[in-house]
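dumping this here so i dont lose it
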C-alpha cells in the first residue's frame, strides 16, 4: 500500500524546517564567533604596536608606567592578558607591563584563572595568568604553582614546572624534586629544569639515590654528576651494583666526574657488565679516571660484540696518547678482526703510524721489526688507512712512503707511480 503524497509532505516539512533552523543557528554562531575573534586579533595588534611605540627611557619608570596604563585603559582584560606576556625586549618595560596588567585584570582574578580547571581550549588563559603572576613576582607564586601541579592536564603541569624552574627559591626546587619523584611529568624535562635551576641545590638530589623507583635513582645520579661533591661518592659507588642497568650507567659516569679514585673500582667491575651501554660508560669512566695506567684493562673491549662499546674503548685509548702503543701492538694479531682494526685505528689516530712509516721510509736500512709492525697496522686498518696516510704526508715524503708501502704489498691500487 503506497503512502499518500500529502502524508510525506506533512512529515518532511518539520524535518526540513529543523535542518534549516540548525544550519542558520550554526552559521550565525560561526559568524559572530569569527567577528569576535577578528576584533580581538585587531585589538591585540593595536596594543602590540602601541607598546612598541613607547619611547620613554628605561630610567623613567614612572613615565613608562603612565604610558602603559594609557594603552591598557583602552583594551579589554581578555586582550591585556595575552598582550602582557609577549615581551618587548626591554626588561624594565616588561616589568612595568606586568605590574600594570596585574592591576588592570586584578590579582584575585588571575589567581582564579590560574588555579581553576577549565576545558583544554582555555588553557592559554590559565598559562598566561601563571606567566603574568610569575613576571609580577607574586608573593605566593610557588604555592600557587604547586596547586596547578595536581591538575589532570599535562599542558598545565608542564607550564607550571617550567615556571618553577625559573624561580630562585628553594621551595620551587623542592616542588620540582617532588614532581620528579611522583612522576608528574616527563622525568627528562623535570630533570632539565633542576639541572638549570638558578640556585645550587645538590643536597636535594642526594635522597633521590635511595628512591624505590629506578628512574628516580637514575636522574638523581645524573643530576649529581654535575653538581655533587666527593662526599656523595659512597652512595654512588653503592649504585654500581644497582639492579637497573640505567642506574649503573649513571652511577659510574657520575663517579668519573666527582671522584676519580672512587670511580676506578666501580668502572672495573662494570667492564664485564651484561648490558652493552653500561660497559661503554665503564670504559669511558675508567679511561678518564685511570689514564694510560688502565689501558691494558680497556683494550680487550676492542673485541666487544657491540659497536658502541668498541667505540668507547677506542676513544678512551686515543685520549691516553702515545703511551698506549705498546699495549695495542699485540692486538694487531688478535683473532677478532674488529680488535685488529680498532688497534690499528688507535695507533693511527695517536700518530704512531705516521711517525713510524715516515721514519722508516727515510731510512736506508729499515728495521725488520718496525717494518713488520707497519705491515700489521696497515693490513689491519685496510686500504682506506693507507690512502689516508698518503694524503697526510707532505709531497716530498710521499714517494718514499709509497715505495715502502709497495714493498710491503700495501699500496693503494689506484696510487700513482
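and the seq i came up w/
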Amino acid at each position: 500500500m503506497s503512502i499518500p503524497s500529502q502524508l510525506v509532505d506533512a512529515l518532511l516539512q518539520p524535518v526540513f524546517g529543523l535542518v534549516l533552523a540548525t544550519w542558520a543557528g550554526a552559521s550565525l554562531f560561526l559568524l559572530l564567533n569569527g567577528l569576535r575573534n577578528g576584533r580581538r586579533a585587531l585589538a591585540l595588534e593595536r596594543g602590540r604596536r602601541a607598546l612598541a611605540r613607547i619611547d620613554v627611557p628605561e630610567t623613567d619608570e614612572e613615565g613608562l608606567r603612565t604610558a602603559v596604563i594609557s594603552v591598557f585603559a583602552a583594551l579589554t582584560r581578555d586582550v591585556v592578558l595575552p598582550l602582557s606576556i609577549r615581551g618587548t625586549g626591554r626588561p624594565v618595560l616588561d616589568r612595568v607591563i606586568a605590574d600594570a596588567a596585574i592591576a588592570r585584570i586584578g590579582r584575585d582574578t588571575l589567581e582564579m584563572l590560574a588555579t581553576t580547571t577549565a576545558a583544554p581550549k582555555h588553557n592559554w588563559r590559565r598559562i598566561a595568568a601563571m606567566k603574568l603572576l610569575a613576571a609580577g613576582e607574586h608573593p605566593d607564586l610557588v604555592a600557587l604553582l604547586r596547586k596547578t601541579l595536581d591538575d589532570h592536564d599535562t599542558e598545565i603541569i608542564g607550564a607550571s614546572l617550567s615556571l618553577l624552574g625559573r624561580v630562585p627559591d628553594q621551595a620551587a626546587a623542592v616542588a620540582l624534586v617532588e614532581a620528579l619523584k611522583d612522576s608528574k611529568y616527563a622525568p627528562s624535562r623535570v630533570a632539565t629544569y633542576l639541572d638549570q635551576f638558578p640556585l645550587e641545590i645538590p643536597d636535594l638530589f642526594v635522597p633521590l639515590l635511595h628512591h624505590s623507583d629506578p628512574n628516580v635513582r637514575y636522574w638523581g645520579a645524573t643530576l649529581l654528576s654535575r653538581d655533587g661533591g666527593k662526599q656523595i661518592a659512597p652512595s654512588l659507588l653503592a649504585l654500581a651494583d644497582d639492579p637497573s642497568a640505567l642506574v649503573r650507567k649513571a652511577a659510574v659516569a657520575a663517579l668519573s666526574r666527582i671522584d676519580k679514585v672512587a670511580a676506578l673500582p666501580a668502572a672495573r667491575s662494570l667492564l664485564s657488565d651484561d648490558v652493552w651501554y653500561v660497559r661503554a660508560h665503564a670504559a669511558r669512566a675508567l679511561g678518564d679516571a685511570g689514564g694510560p695506567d688502565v689501558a691494558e684493562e680497556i683494550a680487550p673491549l676492542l673485541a666487544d660484540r657491540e659497536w658502541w662499546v668498541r667505540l668507547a674503548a677506542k676513544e678512551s685509548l686515543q685520549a691516553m696518547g702515545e703511551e698506549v702503543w705498546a699495549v695495542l701492538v699485540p692486538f694487531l694479531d688478535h683473532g677478532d678482526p674488529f680488535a685488529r682494526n680498532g688497534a690499528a685505528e688507535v695507533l693511527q689516530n695517536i700518530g704512531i703510524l705516521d711517525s713510524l712509516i715516515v721514519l722508516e721510509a727515510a731510512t736506508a736500512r729499515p728495521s725488520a721489526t718496525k717494518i713488520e709492525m707497519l705491515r700489521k697496522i696497515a693490513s689491519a686498518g685496510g686500504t682506506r688507512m693507507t690512502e689516508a696516510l698518503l694524503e697526510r704526508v707532505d709531497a716530498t715524503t710521499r714517494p718514499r712512503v709509497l715505495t715502502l708501502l709497495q714493498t710491503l704489498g700495501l699500496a693503494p691500487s689506484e696510487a700513482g707511480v
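The radius of gyration is 35 Å.
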